[in-house]
Amino acid sequence: MKTILLPTDFSENSWNAIVYTLQLFKNNTCTFHLLHTYTPVILQYDYQSVGASQYGLADAMKSTSEMQLQALLERIKGKFNNPKHTFLTSAAFNTLTLEIESLYNGNAIDIIAMGTKGTSGVKGVLFGSNTVHVLNNAKCPVLAIPSDFSYEEPHEILFPSDYEVDFKASQIKPIVDIANMYGARVNILHVNYGEDLTELQDKNRNTLEGFFTSVAHLFHDIKNKSVASAISDFQLKARVNLLVMLNNKHSFFENIFFKSKINQIGFHLNIPFLVIPSKVS
């Protein structure tokens, strides 16, 4: 049984992410945890001395959040009636990242699934600020779904790697699980500028290949392109419908998405994106 966290801000973007996730795991026995977090504006000033409860603000926000969560749950049950799926709801006076950390420490999350943008939906920006924080800090896999992506079964999975990671079975298992669920093929993409693999890279590549023996997979070597361009070009050419990357600190993942290039790939990344942390329990 999987426990899947579905953070929501009640936007259509987050609804689309929920719809995608429920369909992706339609054949799995799952508990879905619908989470809405809120922080009263007064917290930004002198919350400790003033006390939001004096104004009834925190109570009012909690009540509103709980009503919206109940309405969301009814919307889900009206569209999906899957006996394999159960639901929990939670309205939390907290920031999203801190609440996720608390839930994770309580062994309550296997996967986080969320939309790529929040209610603001700023054009030209790949990830909303909440998504960026979650991707950067999550200790379990995070599935980010673009707001305009309609569900389709993942049949071509793209997994770029620089082979600089000492791969562990726990990191690769989420990819293998999805590939097995849908008979998908995993495309392992390596970008280089004509150099041979180092001894360490060659060792890591062989380790990686061993983890994919139970699923269809292909290795691809692309030369003289930026990683961002190679990902964009390959996903269009091969009709990829799931991108997977390891978020390894100081890796090329970090360089692409959390430094100067965060918008460089934003106009091309229009498929679901599974991010696996370097340490997965």
Automatic annotation (TrEMBL):
InterPro entries: Universal_stress_UspA (IPR006015), UspA (IPR006016). It comes from Mangrovimonas cancribranchiae. It comes from the Bacteria. It holds the Pfam family Usp. Residues 1-146 form the UspA domain. Transmembrane segments: none annotated. CDD domains: USP-like. This is Universal stress protein.
